[in-house]
Specification:
alpha+beta; eight-stranded antiparallel β-barrel; 1 helix; 60% strand
Length: 205
């Protein structure tokens, strides 16, 4: 168990370094292509998950709660006039229902977390901004079964979503995001997905 945790920590550290490097490279490339008049905006933010629902199934007579009890994300990015790039770390709470174990249905709970990088397309309407996001995530899914067994899996998965923000001031914006996250949760590669609705705030530098 400790060996798996150490391997996951090393993988996450490597991905963090890669995401930071990607942000820097994107910023440098865009600044070079756009010329001296381009003024990119760096920002950071944090959101608390208000509602997260898994796509797992429910079996008759078994406990089922597909709504996660907690979730959230922290993120940072670089935004230009027409596009941006954003890196994030996210986590979701447990959802309980029918999972897969050894190719068969099994009662249990699943949760996931990870790191992602997405391209961002903004549409500005005065103080409001609508954003579309599309990219990929390195996810860690964990399943805990009613039988007492547990499994986990690291995987690469698509990450996409949309968000709406309101510029409360030049630096501070209130945000509401919907993110679709998926992850494999066992050695067989079975996966679950969750839609997480979160609200928070971001700060421009």
């Amino acid at each position: 168990m400790f060996k798996k945790q150490a391997m996951f920590s090393r993988s996450m550290s490597t991905l963090v370094s890669t995401l930071i490097a990607a942000l820097g490279l994107a910023a440098a490339s865009s600044a070079s292509a756009a010329g001296p008049q381009s003024q990119p905006e760096a920002y950071v933010g944090a959101n608390i998950g208000l509602y997260s629902k898994y796509d797992i199934s429910c079996s008759a007579g078994q406990k089922c709660d597909k709504t996660a009890n907690f979730g959230g994300k922290v993120y940072g990015g670089m935004m230009y006039e027409q596009w941006g790039v954003e890196a994030m770390a996210f986590g979701t709470g447990r959802g309980e229902g029918t999972l897969k174990l050894g190719g068969k249905d099994a009662q249990g709970s699943v949760k996931m977390g990870g790191l992602g990088v997405v391209g961002v397309l903004p549409l500005n309407f005065g103080d409001f901004t609508l954003k579309g996001r599309l990219g990929a995530a390195y996810t860690h899914g964990t399943a805990n079964y009613k039988s007492g067994a547990s499994e986990s899996k690291n995987s690469i998965a698509p990450l996409f979503g949309a968000g709406l923000s309101y510029a409360f001031s030049k630096q501070v914006s209130l945000t509401a995001d919907l993110d679709h996250i998926s992850a494999k949760y066992n050695k067989a590669g079975d996966k679950a997905a969750v839609n997480m609705f979160s609200i928070g705030a971001s700060y421009k530098f």
